[in-house]
């Protein structure tokens, strides 16, 4: 099989599939049915996060250490020998980041990366891939700022692939594959840009 490329990823996402690596590095493509998504407009931060957001405990940055976030996500699963983020996947997604189609939201404390997430943006669809943290709530706060960005840039779809307890806490729901593909077609056809809007704009107090 040929090496995974950024073009392969773009083709896959547009058609509702995404790759994951097996423990031996073999890549497989997935298209789950049902599909998990997070409704962008209904998300609300948990009350426990509000003090952290209001006090700006974490320094939030965009796309300053994309590969570092990916490696953090891979390390978060290193205790189970079944990480799906292989070196081939890191290289391909880093290529997408260089093209302006893959993005990271990063949380720092004292200039140290302590959590974050990454995903792919095509049209007005954002495909969330993975998140990690080394300090409690870092990834949750990063997700909050991801949602603010998607709302400000009028994104219509936030794909989270599979349902699990982690994404449920952010409001994820499952929908049939055919419904997801209809939403995907509309969202990828609409122009939108994942723009790192001025961070100060996001630091408004949460009542």
TrEMBL record:
Keywords: Acyltransferase, Cytoplasm, Transferase. Belongs to the L/F-transferase family. Functions in the N-end rule pathway of protein degradation where it conjugates Leu, Phe and, less efficiently, Met from aminoacyl-tRNAs to the N-termini of proteins containing an N-terminal arginine or lysine. It is found in: Cytoplasm. One of its GO terms (molecular function) is leucyl-tRNA--protein transferase activity. Its EC number is 2.3.2.6. It catalyses: L-phenylalanyl-tRNA(Phe) + an N-terminal L-alpha-aminoacyl-[protein] = an N-terminal L-phenylalanyl-L-alpha-aminoacyl-[protein] + tRNA(Phe); N-terminal L-lysyl-[protein] + L-leucyl-tRNA(Leu) = N-terminal L-leucyl-L-lysyl-[protein] + tRNA(Leu) + H(+); N-terminal L-arginyl-[protein] + L-leucyl-tRNA(Leu) = N-terminal L-leucyl-L-arginyl-[protein] + tRNA(Leu) + H(+). InterPro entries: Acyl_CoA_acyltransferase, Leu/Phe-tRNA_Trfase, Leu/Phe-tRNA_Trfase_C, Leu/Phe-tRNA_Trfase_N. The keyword Transferase applies. The lineage of its organism: Bacteria, Pseudomonadati, Bacteroidota, Cytophagia, Cytophagales. The keyword Transferase applies. HAMAP family: Leu_Phe_trans (MF_00688). This is Leucyl/phenylalanyl-tRNA--protein transferase. NCBIfam families: aat. Its main location: cytoplasm. Transmembrane segments: none annotated.
């Amino acid at each position: 099989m040929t090496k995974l490329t950024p073009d392969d990823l773009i083709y896959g996402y547009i058609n509702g599939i995404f790759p994951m690596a097996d423990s031996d590095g073999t890549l497989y493509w997935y298209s789950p049915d049902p599909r998990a998504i997070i409704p962008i407009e209904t998300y609300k931060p948990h009350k426990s996060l509000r003090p952290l957001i209001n006090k700006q405990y974490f320094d939030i940055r965009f796309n300053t250490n994309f590969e570092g976030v990916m490696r953090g996500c891979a390390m978060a699963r290193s205790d189970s020998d079944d990480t799906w983020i292989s070196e081939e996947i890191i290289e391909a997604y880093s290529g997408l980041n260089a093209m302006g189609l893959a993005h990271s939201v990063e949380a720092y404390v004292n200039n140290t990366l302590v959590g974050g997430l990454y995903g792919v943006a095509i049209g007005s669809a954002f495909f969330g891939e993975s998140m990690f943290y080394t300090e409690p709530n870092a990834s949750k706060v990063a997700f909050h700022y991801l949602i603010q960005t998607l709302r400000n840039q009028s994104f219509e779809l936030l794909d989270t692939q599979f349902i699990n307890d982690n994404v449920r806490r952010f409001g994820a729901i499952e929908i049939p594959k055919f419904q997801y593909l209809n939403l995907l077609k509309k969202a990828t056809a609409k122009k939108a840009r994942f723009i790192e809007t001025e961070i100060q704009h996001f630091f408004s107090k949460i009542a």
